[in-house]
């Protein structure tokens, strides 16, 4: 890939756009928006509710953007060898600019969190610590899945803590969200499996291999579905069976179909589609359960 020495404004703008990993950040923003909407709706809706909703989403989005930007900053040397098309190796964004932007986004996150409950700031800092530890080295180890398993459950906890009203359902969501987070991390690693192996990165996907990774991804989501079913049937989390049962059926069928279609030796582009479909399945499972439990 040709390195750009003189940058046009359009090239700089495009570089910063892709530096922010727009699609993954969009997924996180959608998730926090839905949880924030539920959290704000769980208390009396007032004129301040929209203000809270915007702050909750904006603060978390700023943090996700900072993690995304600093991820590319930390990986800039590896990317120069294995992913020369990325903004920093191409010269569209200079390393120092990425570092400054990442730090600035963290500062914006903190400022946006100050008007919210102090617990929301603490949870966000824990999430940020998980993200930065991932960037600074855990990404290339089998422990990367643990980072996601710890971080993803913090999203609903953060949203409800921000409005000062944490409902019992949030705590039951922690094990389900942890399993889904580990599955998403593994699925996200699959497209880069060969490149990571060539660079001697020991991600969980590299350690397991493609076939075993697909099996583990499927099992993690199915185990999440089992937990949702157990919580519902035992009334630990009262929910409408007419909503939860179809959700579990659709989830199980989707995971089965994906496992059969996305057989090993598929190219990286197809494995990327697998990741996006896995995100969709996780949204369906979590969303269906929440709808059944809250409405």
Number of domains: 2
Stretches where pLDDT falls below 50 for ≥5 residues?
A: none
The largest pleated sheet is described as:
none
Question: In the CATH hierarchy, what is the architecture of the largest domain at level 2?
Answer: Orthogonal Bundle
| H/E series | HHHHHHHHHHHHHHH
Q: From the alpha-carbon coordinates, what is the Rg to the nearest angstrom?
A: 20 Å
Could you give the count of β-strands? 0
In the CATH scheme, the class of the largest domain would be: Mainly Alpha
Task: Could you tell me the CATH topology label of the largest domain.
Answer: Tetracycline Repressor, domain 2
Averaged pLDDT: 90
Describe the model.
- With 295 residues, this protein is an all-alpha fold.
- The chain folds into two domains: 1-139, Tetracycline Repressor, domain 2 (Orthogonal Bundle); 167-295, Four Helix Bundle (Hemerythrin (Met), subunit A), CATH 1.20.120.
- The chain contains 15 helices and no strands.
- The chain has helices at 9-19, 22-41, 49-74, 76-82, 87-90, 95-113, 118-135, 144-151, 154-162, 168-189, 193-198, 204-208, 210-233, 241-261, 268-294.
- Helix 2 (22-41) packs antiparallel against helix 3 (49-74), helix 2 (22-41) crosses helix 9 and helix 9 packs across helix 10.
- It is globular.
- The chain starts with 8 loop residues before the first helix and ends with a helix.
- 44% of the residues are buried.
- The mean pLDDT is 90.
